[in-house]
Amino acid sequence: MNEITAVIPVREGSRRLKNKNIAPFAGTNLLINKINQLKQVKEITNIVVSSDSDLMLAMADSQGVMTHKRAPEFCDEKTKTFGEVVAHVCENVPGVDILWATCTAPLVFPKHYREAIALYYDALEQGFDSLVSMEQFRRYLWDDNGPVNYELGIKHVPSQQLKPLYFCTDGILIAPRAKMIEWKYFHGTNPYRYILDKRTSVDIDDGLDLACARAWLDMDESVSQIDPYCID
């Protein structure tokens, strides 16, 4: 039987947006919003809030979910490496598979988690080792030496003809718990790409991101699914 634990990692400090993880959102705050979303996913066996913050852990307790108290060195982003933090959290929560569910991705809704979980188990059968939510994009990219994915001049092409690229949204990451501990990371080298649209992919890192997420919350979903690269 599949046993999947959703982990919501939150910490007290935030450099760019103070108290980011409990910023007001959707009539509550980002942390409780995410707990409420995950509670609607019947495929999830356990929900665990992992934090160094007594306030956030108390919020989790009030919502009836599990908690994991992290020592300061696993939250200060200096003492322990990111990989050590991932392994430490996974070593201290139950479950066969872990779904890393950040509360700063508030527009990832229950339906997305349900779909991702189903795709994850199918993907394992196909030889993938994990699942990662990504946003596909086509943009004209430069590095210090000039264009990276297109040519200047006569060979310039419209953006919709560029080869698609992807960035990890960190909204949904799923892998076997034992593998996360082994890899010291939350996905492997051969992840299944679960593509999310621009709206669903929003990740709150600063005040502008938060404002966008609030504005997009009640937006007609069909608008976010229009292909931005289509032309008449």
Would you mind describing this structure in some detail?
- The protein has 232 residues and is α/β, with parallel strands linked by helices.
- The protein has a single domain (4-219), classed as Spore Coat Polysaccharide Biosynthesis Protein SpsA, Chain A (Alpha-Beta Complex).
- Helices cover 29% and strands 23% of the residues.
- Strands 5-4-1-6-10-7-11 form a seven-stranded mixed sheet.
- Helix 2 links the parallel strand 4 and strand 5.
- The radius of gyration is 19 Å and the shape is globular.
Give the topology, please:
Layout: E1 4-9, E2 24-25, E3 28-29, H1 30-39, E4 46-51, H2 54-62, E5 66-69, H3 82-91, E6 97-100, H4 110-125, E7 130-137, E8 142-143, E9 146-147, E10 165-176, H5 177-183, E11 191-195, H6 207-217, H7 221-224
Parallel strand pairs: 1-4, 1-6, 4-5, 7-11
Antiparallel strand pairs: 2-3, 6-10, 7-10, 8-9
Helix pairs in contact: 3-5
